[in-house]
Design brief:
Layout lengths: L1 H9 L2 H11 L31 H15 L7 H10 L12 H10 L1 E5 L4 E6 L2 E5 L5 E6 L8 E2 L2
Antiparallel strand pairs: 1-2, 1-5, 2-3, 3-4
Length: 154
């Protein structure tokens, strides 16, 4: 819940600093997209199943989840873990600068069908948002171009 997230952030000044720094990156301001999802709604916080998360890391995952939900996106726990590692990574082939870049790809990216993983990919500016059949973000990756197995939807 928002109260738990706020309490966690207040109890961890380093995390509060990270959150503030992340917000200065700027976020995509665009129309909201509502995606059908299986076990959550954009208004419902994800239930993290991982048990070995530190308090600060758990707060970071919940913050990422909240940012995505504000734009109608629902993600899997796996996607949150991957995004956590890729946001502001020092490796340029791996780095995703901000949640705003992910939201932009999610809402405005070219649409591809990925038959090998039975899902859809939204691709924009090298950011690929992989969606399950029911519209939940499975993972987010960096790619130079669309994979040869992806089929572009017109």
């Amino acid at each position: 819940s928002d109260a738990e997230l706020q309490q966690a952030l207040e109890g961890n000044p380093g995390q509060r600093e990270q959150t503030t720094r992340g917000r200065r990156l700027g976020y995509f301001e665009g129309p909201e997209v509502i995606v059908p999802e299986a076990n959550a709604t954009p208004e419902t916080e994800i239930e993290l199943k991982g048990t070995d998360y530190s308090r600060g890391y758990r707060s970071k995952l919940l913050r990422i989840d909240k940012e995505l939900r504000e734009y109608g996106a629902t993600s899997s726990e796996h996607a949150l873990n991957k995004l956590s590692g890729r946001l502001n990574s020092s490796d340029p082939s791996y780095n995703i600068a901000s949640i705003g870049d992910v939201i932009d790809a999610y809402q405005n990216g070219d649409i591809y069908v990925d038959p090998s993983h039975e899902g859809t990919v939204r691709l924009k500016n090298g950011i690929a948002v992989h969606l399950s059949k029911n519209g939940i973000i499975k993972t987010v990756t960096r790619v130079k171009k669309a994979k040869s197995t992806w089929q572009k939807k017109s």
